[in-house]
Amino acid sequence: MTNPGSNFGQSDIIRLGDEDATVAVLERAIIGMWDSVNELTRLRRTFRSNYRVTIFGSARLQPGTSAYESVKQLAAGLTEMGCDIISGGGPGLMQAANEGALSVDPDALHRSVGIRIDLPFEQAVNPYVGKAYGHGTFFSRLHHFMIASDAFVVVPGGIGTLLEMSLAWQLLQVRRLYNTPLILVGKMWGELVNWSREWMLQEGQALASPEDLDIPLCAGSVEETIELLRARREEWLRSQGRPDERSIPS
User: Looking at the domain assignment, is residue 199 inside a domain?
Assistant: First the structure.
């Protein structure tokens, strides 16, 4: 008969009934796992074909709305310029971004990317995604956006879009992202930046530095957004020692 007090011949066995010790083991294992993930995500390709623009926006605004058609036009213009388009892969303005990309280059599916989250009420990837990635958690999905993108464009959206924008803004603030433009399109985001200036830069009780609030670039139109990104893409091409060229097949 097995002795209930036995450690199965090992001195370092931790029984599941010892809850504190079990939790400590799990915490160390999870931290070690994230250390490994952080090391792996430091790796980057030496050469990459195209400048990658992520468009964050609402899942609720449907085809036929002015916002949908504007995002579709924006993504088409960026794709024509030589950018790849990344979205959240779902419906609404995410679909508009992927649709705009494929409208310019229907044979290059790899240039229209969706980074999805598995939700019970939002199952299917939109039909214009050529290359899809799936995530079970918002944390890993947001991390994927941050390491995959050369630029972020934020169009009208709700709480999810606000979360995505805020993470990019904060990583740029603490210099965990470099040379990655964050462009906010539309009046709603411009008013948010103005609100931030009013409340976060009050004399004697500042909650941020003035330069932190200069990080997002506010644009009032599709054309202005494209021109901002044209300049940043040209800088990116020069940093790779390449001329101003259109997309290169992968």
Answer: yes
- The CATH number of whichever domain residue 76 belongs to comes to 3.40.50.450
Count up the domains in the chain and report the number: 1
Within a 13 Å sphere around the CA of 201, how many CA atoms are in the beta-carbon half? Answer: 12
The H helix count followed by the E strand count for the chain is: 7, 7
Residue 89 is assigned to a structural domain of this protein: yes
SS3 percent helix, strand, coil of the chain, rounded to 5, is 45, 15, 40
- Of residues 244 and 229, more confidently modeled: 229
Does 21 have pLDDT greater than 90? no
In the chain the beta strands, taken as DSSP E runs, fall at: 51-56, 83-87, 112-117, 131-135, 151-154, 182-185, 216-219
The reply to whether 74 falls in a domain is yes
Asked whether residue 5 is assigned to any structural domain, the reply reads no
Average pLDDT, the chain: 89
Biggest CA–CA distance in the chain, Å, is 79
Q: Does position 4 have pLDDT exceeding 60, yes or no?
A: no
Q: Cβ(92)–Cβ(58) under 8 Å?
A: yes
Task: List, in sequence order, every residue forming a beta bridge with 114; answer none if it has no partner.
Answer: 87, 132
The structure's pTM equals: 0.86
Task: Tell me the residue type at 130.
Answer: G
**Could you give the dihedral angle defined by the CA atoms of residues 186, 192, 194 and 197, in that order, rounded to the nearest 10 degrees?**
-150
Going by pLDDT thresholds of 50, 70 and 90, the confidence category of residue 8 is low
Q: What is the pLDDT of residue 226?
A: 98
Give the range of the structural domain holding residue 220, as residue numbers without chain letter.
51-239
CB atoms within 10 A of CB 125: 19
Q: List pLDDT tens digits, range 180-191.
A: 999 999 999 999
User: Given the DSSP bridges, would you call strands 51-56 and 83-87 parallel, antiparallel or unpaired?
Assistant: parallel
